[in-house]
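[step 3/7] inverse_fold.run input=structure_tokens len=101
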């Protein structure tokens, strides 16, 4: 299982790096699809964009529909927390709120 996760992370790193450099107008979109993101037909993603969802492991969090154009240097970032971390995350927030500024 750990090897599968490591390989998926590695594939995501390589494909996302290749997506940053626009060789043709379809180059970035092709490589973002290879990362595992759901990108519809006729979608266009500009050069030097960043699409990031938890180290390329939760690629289902981002869906780009058909006929969408995304300009250069756009960042789409999602972050999820496993259910097991909700309690920890809540404690962190409560500690911050208790601080006197």
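[step 3/7] decode complete -> sequence:
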């Amino acid at each position: 299982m750990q090897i599968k996760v490591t390989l998926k992370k590695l594939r995501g790193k390589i494909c996302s790096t290749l997506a940053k450099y626009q060789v043709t107008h379809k180059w970035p979109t092709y490589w973002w699809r290879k990362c595992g993101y759901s990108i519809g037909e006729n979608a266009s993603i500009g050069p030097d964009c960043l699409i990031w969802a938890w180290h390329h492991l939760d690629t289902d969090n981002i869906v780009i529909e058909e006929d969408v154009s995304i300009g250069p240097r756009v960042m789409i970032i999602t972050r999820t927390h496993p259910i097991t971390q909700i309690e920890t995350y809540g404690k962190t927030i409560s500690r911050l709120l208790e601080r006197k500024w």
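[step 4/7] annotate
Residues 93 and 99 are 10 Å apart (CA to CA).
The longest helix spans residues 2-19.
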